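Suppose a colleague, Dr. K., hands you the sequence of a protein chain of 294 amino acids and asks what its three-dimensional shape might be. Before reaching for any lab equipment, you can write down a predicted structure in token form. Begin with the sequence itself:
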Amino acid sequence: MELRHLKTFQTAAELLNFTKAAKKLNFSQPTVTAQIRSLEQEIGHPLFFRIGNQTFLTAHGEIVRKYADKLFATIDSMHADLQEKSRSASKLTIAASETFCTHYFPPIIRQFLEAYPEIGIKLVSCTSDKVIAGIDSNAFDIGIISGSYNKAGVTNVVISEEEDLVLVVSKELHSKHSTQELLEQYPFIKYEIVGPFEQQMNSYIQETGIRSRKIVESSSLEAVKSAVMNAIGVGLISRNLVKKELASRQLYEILLNKKPIRIQTSLIIATHKLGDQKTMHLIRLIEQNWNTIH
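The predicted structure, expressed as tokens, is then:
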């Protein structure tokens, strides 16, 4: 059974007029008649009958129309899904913290676009818990999180185990106060870590004697850095983010002889997306370049 014959029948069944059906389909009326006759011969029953100048469906015609409508509705849905897939395939959405979006991804994206200039990139800045939720809901294609995420249907790739947090203070405050005075008198500004490192962070705070009533928390490492640079308080921040400031003595590290907080960074992606060539190319670039970008 040819789809074009079935489509011609569906149109004729809707209009109950072969001349109007031919006009709508941009066919000649003999073509419409011939296709309907061919379909009737294949089915073995007439599909239309006439009374005077009016055309009606036979009982068999009603059955064929019911299934033809279902069939072409399914085909229309298939085409819509394919078009949506084509649109989504032209863009990759990456979710990560503000620091990663600002400092890590620009050089990686530049390399990616050299290979795939027709692909759009959308960077979404959010915390690790929101990254995970977006991967689960298929809102994001690739996510970067602190820690790891193990779930059926999601692939977790560790891209860094070297990132550590350092306790820093501005040059101004460092020159005026002892470590004890800094920890007791000034706010402690820390990065909001949601996930497996939260307990590690809380233990560090307790061991150092930092007063919880003076803790200021931010989901942005950039905001933590800015607050410390402006002498608001003492900050716990990624060492990679303040390397230049430490080297130039704009910031000073406070050494407490405590076990450092080391943050594992992972890439997460829905496993079924690993078959996409451009996505895999981007993942390889992230793996190759992540620990060289500071």
